[in-house]
Design goal:
Chain lengths: ~170, ~425
């Protein structure tokens, strides 16, 4: 899935750079479709499974995933892994295809580490994500960040598996 | 008073004659304990006894005095006739009885109701010298019995060491039993828990203003962003101290109460800043791409200890309050956090993450004499000093969830004081209440 996103994202970027003006009229329809799909997949949490890619049928349209996916980090790290970058490229494609979506990026940590340090680390993670999305062409105005440190774990528990899932950035539609 | 204490100590030395004199400082718990006879207070003639009330009083007093580590309580079963005699004047006390039991100190007392007011008259005697050390009556309504007991414990410590105790004070902490993290207040023995906030979100990391204000700062997400607030404890009125975009966390009032050190990240980087306690003015103290958090003032207000990952792993550093010079304090370990400068300035407590759990350490501000205070199961986090520097309050999750614990500054006597519902964390100790 991640590789597909990466490929699609690259394709999308090429398409946007190459023929942004030609693509513009069609993308309105695309916006509605994708926004509708996002709503049916649930709100509130904002992050959904990223269950698929909207196939546009035509060849010129940039394809985008149906939703933004969360990204994960290593312990005490806020650098983006190759996996995280691939996911973010998909998220960027989604945001490019859904111009009305404004997103709050939440940075989270696992329960290890001190609370204050993790608040800072969570913000570093959210900012790293935001900066990468901006570098992919997403307008900074549409993005904001907040850190919850270790206050909002995704899963309970003190196992390596739980920690790995909790070290993350989430995407919440504003 | 000091000469009295010295002579008292010397007397003990002459009896035991085992320890070198320079080691005998009564303010250092665990090194030398004084045998104290704690008698039941007696109703004055004509008064209806209220054993339940006085039993509560004695239990609190006993808890505090035992926790201080300064005393060894003489077994009440061994008490002779004088414990039941009402005579409080030194000529009335049968000192030879107490000397026989090996007590160096005896606390006697009476109580009576004066209308609605409870009057307790304590008498603390130096047995070898047959001298009154403390005897100021406490007067108030009977609902304040816990405060009376804590106050008397404080005064007994003061009579013996020239420095009052920290027991008649409050501990603020965070608890999530409502489903949200809110701010609470309790006595230093964990009684009288009161919830202060109802923000319905996340409240974190409280800090009391220095005396005489009774205000408390904390970070809350109540407007969505982690902002720093102050709250007047009597009225409950809250106002914003720092509400910049990004983090406004880890607020600590300067010793004079005029400034607040905290972590902000408006620039996209987390740095230590100092602002006015009213929120005005701003001096950036650290300028580094790394994470800088958890400032703690030196008691003279000239320096701040803080955590930074500027050398890779989180370590403790010290910076002057102008942000001119940064020096590294800790070199051991791979993850050091939450520094807390002692009120006397002589040590800095912090935590170190090793083998998946935190333990509490202290170190001198010059980086020497690092000592580990806690051992065994449980992650011990967020140490804060009592205002007299005799104790540390912290969280410990040895029971499976974080609870508030207390220990002596040398790491002995650790015990839970609040183990109620939910997770309890981020304790901080007020000055005299």
């Amino acid at each position: 899935m991640k590789k597909i996103f990466a490929i699609l994202a690259v394709a999308a970027l090429v398409a946007m750079v190459g023929c942004a003006k030609q693509a513009a009229p069609g993308s309105t329809v695309d916006d509605q479709q994708v926004a509708g799909a996002g709503q049916t997949q649930g709100s509130g949490g904002g992050t959904t499974g990223g269950s698929g890619v909207q196939s546009q049928g035509g060849s010129a349209m940039p394809a985008a995933p149906a939703a933004m996916e969360r990204v994960y980090f290593d312990f005490d790290q806020y650098t983006l892994s190759a996996d995280a970058k691939a996911t973010l490229e998909g998220n960027a494609a989604y945001l490019m295809a859904n111009k009305s979506v404004w997103v709050k990026i939440e940075g989270h940590c696992d329960e290890r580490g001190s609370d204050e340090y993790n608040l800072a680390l969570g913000e570093k993670r959210a900012l790293a994500v935001m900066n990468y999305l901006v570098s992919l062409g997403v307008s900074k105005n549409r993005l904001s960040v907040i850190s919850y440190g270790e206050e909002r774990p995704l899963v309970a528990g003190s196992s390596e598996a739980a920690w790995a899932q909790n070290r993350r950035a989430e995407f919440v539609k504003n | 008073m000091r000469t009295l204490i010295v002579s008292l100590v010397l007397l003990i030395v002459s009896v035991s004659s085992a320890v070198a004199a320079e080691e005998l400082t009564i303010s250092a718990p665990g090194q030398q304990t004084l045998p104290l006879a704690l008698t039941d207070f007696i109703p004055t003639p004509g008064q209806t006894p209220n054993p339940a009330l006085m039993n509560e009083f004695q239990q609190i007093l006993k808890y505090d005095l035992e926790l201080s580590g300064l005393f060894e309580l003489v077994n009440p079963d061994s008490f002779l006739g004088d414990a039941k005699r009402i005579g409080l004047r030194s000529v009335d006390v049968n000192f030879s009885e107490w000397r026989l039991l090996g007590a160096d100190l005896v606390l006697k007392g009476t109580y009576r109701m004066d209308g609605d007011r409870l009057v307790i008259v304590p008498r603390l005697y130096d047995v070898p010298r047959q001298k009154l050390l403390y005897g100021v009556p406490v007067v108030g309504d009977r609902a304040s019995i816990r405060n009376f007991a804590h106050e008397l414990a404080d005064k007994i410590l003061e009579a013996l060491t020239d420095e009052t105790g920290p027991f008649k004070a409050k501990i603020a902490f965070i608890n999530n039993s409502t489903g949200n993290k809110e701010l609470y207040l309790m006595d230093t023995d964990g009684h009288g828990v009161v919830r202060l906030t109802a923000h319905g979100g996340i409240v974190l990391n409280p800090d009391f203003t220095p005396p005489p204000q009774r205000e408390i700062s904390f970070t809350s997400y109540k407007r969505g962003n982690p902002d720093l607030y102050r709250r007047e404890l009597r009225s409950g009125v809250e106002s914003v101290i720092s509400r910049r975009s990004g983090l406004n966390i880890g607020g600590r009032f300067s010793p004079d109460g005029r400034r607040v050190a905290l972590t902000q990240s408006q620039s996209g980087n987390t740095d230590i800043v100092i602002i006015g306690a009213n929120g005005r003015g701003r001096t950036q103290i650290t300028r580094h791409w790394g994470i800088d958090v958890d400032p703690s003032w030196s008691p003279d207000g000239k320096e701040l200890a803080f955590v930074s990952d500027r050398r890779g792993n989180p370590h403790i550093f010290i910076v002057d309050d102008g942000g001119e010079k940064v020096r590294r304090l800790t070199f051991e370990g791979k993850y050091n956090a939450t520094p807390a400068w002692s009120p006397k300035g002589d040590r800095i407590a912090f935590t170190r993450l090793e083998n998946r759990r935190f333990d509490v350490y202290t170190i001198r501000p010059d980086g020497t004499d690092e000592r580990r205070l806690t051992f065994g199961a449980g992650s011990k986090e967020h140490p804060r000093w009592s205002p007299d520097g005799r104790f540390l309050v912290y969280s410990n999750d040895v029971s499976g969830k974080k609870a508030i614990w207390i220990m002596r500054a040398d790491g002995t006597g650790g015990r839970p004081i609040h183990t109620g519902q939910g997770v309890s964390q981020h304790p901080t100790w007020s000055t005299r209440w």
